[in-house]
Amino acid sequence: MILILISWLYMLFISVGMGSLLFAIAKPKNLVFLILSGLFFQLLLIHFWGLFFATSTVFYAFNSGFSASLILVYRKEIRILFKQSFKDFQNWRTFTKLIFGLIGIAALMQSSVSPYLPDNESYYIQSIRWVNEYGLVKGLANIHPFFGQMSGWHLLQSSFNFGFWVDFLNDLNGFLLVVVAFFGFDRLNHFSKERNLPDLFIGFIFITSIFLFRFLDAPSPDLQVYLIFPLMVWIFINEFEKPSKEYIFLLFIFGLLLVLSKISSFPVLMLPIVLLFKSREFKKAFPIVFMLCITALTAFCSKNYIITGYLLYPSNWLGELVNPDWKMPGQLQQLYYDYTQFHAFNSPETELEDFKNWSPLTKFQKWVFSPKLHGFFNQLILALLITFPLWIRKNKAFFWIYLTGFCQFMILYFTSPQYRFFFHIILVLGLIVVSLQIQQFRLRKLKSMLLFSIILVFVPLTFNINFKAFTNNKFMRTTTKTFKISYLLKPHKNSQYEYKYKEITEGNFKYNSPVNTHLWLTGDGQLPAVNQLMVNFFKEEIQLRPQLRSERIKDGFISLKTEE
Question: Which domain range does residue 360 map to?
């Protein structure tokens, strides 16, 4: 916990420094907005740095020096924001301080335990490690298709984990949760005085803490969508009638941060676009917005081009414009796409061959009636999309929020309708409805609801809880790992398992393969780490195998036919 707290202070230092770039175009009125903007500018820096270099000691030295310089230049403005935040905190009610303290302690504890998500073992750890040791590598998706979806969030994590030194600091999600919690509870404190609906909505996000905390001990890009999108909605509702260019910039920055981290969330950009066109300051705001979007698009396309050979991966759109030798073969891309889409229906792997012949009705039935937690959230999103229009007539801003959610759902339904991809829509629409129903509740009742939900997150940290009743995912560990006293200083390493590896030679490609694991898992092995079962699977299914482009790993990888 102590080492994680120190790493969070470093994240705060860097994000405040990089966030100071915002002062050149706007005057943020909140420290949290400055910090989140700093994460965006840091993410852009990592994208372009990674094209040429690794996030090694040289990067950390440069980044620290650059951030310190920005803090020095904008020290007066930064000092004002810190003083205001401290003053706000002093004015919080005792209860608000209590639940924020509990969230902070629980986040530190959860960040310290063994990671829970299976994706962490398949590509999170390895994605971050590649960036730490080599930067962005050409054709990396050829050795494991999951690398093709390397998230900007993983690039961002590589700039904070001191990967050249330790293997237990992939804890960016915990930092983000605490930062957003500060904003949410500050607004909740305001709600106790002013009864403003958006303040209740943003503060009540943490009534879902027991779910959010499942994404805390690994750098899942899903969590930042769950936390930042509601913040965008809060800004959108408050600014809808008379949008200012400062908040328009913030909405675009937050939206682009989400898109660079998880491309499937791109419909969230509808919200800042709506405010931009409603604003009387359109002509003043548009040039800066345009530059932000072009810069983010360039960063996104550059990363995709290097890793996969496609500009807009996972889309094949404009795929024929560029054809580098390391381009991910269409057969590999299609096989991966079919598998991930099938995975969303929670059916046995024996049905994979029949999946392509399923009718739209069969797919819908299997999706709606998926077992356990999957089916519950699938039914919940449908219920919200059907009933939420009842509230649209009361608030025009709700119409655009609903339309954003509806577009997001439709895109995901026809690609990969996994509930965790649209949970932010469930969260926002659901909490707006709940807030409308409970805004007249006595404050004591609201406090009790929130306190109970936060106390619940300590249960899995104290007792081994079996989640088998909630999921059929055989890759997901069913039992939680409790917090240990030894984690007070040094947290658990970034992987939940102790892997054994063997060195495999495939043509000119030598790699480390974990023993006795599922074919997608790679773990925390020395680079390059690939599962032999997966390599053999692709050789058998599509007659492709990964190879080095040259004698150096840094020069990247290609896929060749097995007979070549």
Answer: 336-440
d(CA 112, CA 171): 8
| Within a domain: 549 | yes
Asked whether the CA dihedral 108, 110, 114, 120 is positive or negative, the reply is: negative
Tokens read off for 397: 């801003």
Q: Please report whether residue 78 resides in a domain.
A: no
Are the C-beta atoms of 519 and 533 separated by less than 8 Å?
A: yes
Instruction: Tell me the whole-structure pTM to 2 decimals.
Output: 0.94
Query: Residue 441: helix, strand or coil by DSSP?
Result: coil
Query: Structural domain tally of the chain?
Result: 2
Note whether residue 545 is domain-resident: yes
Please state, in angstroms and rounded to a whole number, the distance separating the CA atoms of residues 244 and 234: 14
Alpha-carbon distances, residue 357 vs 91, 140, 360, 416 (angstroms): 61, 32, 9, 17
Residue 216 lies inside a defined structural domain of this protein: no
Tokens encoding 465: 């809880």
Model pLDDT for residues 199-244, shown as the tens digit of each residue: 999 999 999 999 999 999 999 999 999 999 999 999 999 999 999 9
80-84 long-range Cβ contacts below 8 angstroms, 24+ apart = 81/28, 81/30, 81/31, 81/34, 82/31, 84/31
CA distance 384 to 405: 10
Structure tokens at 322: 């560029």
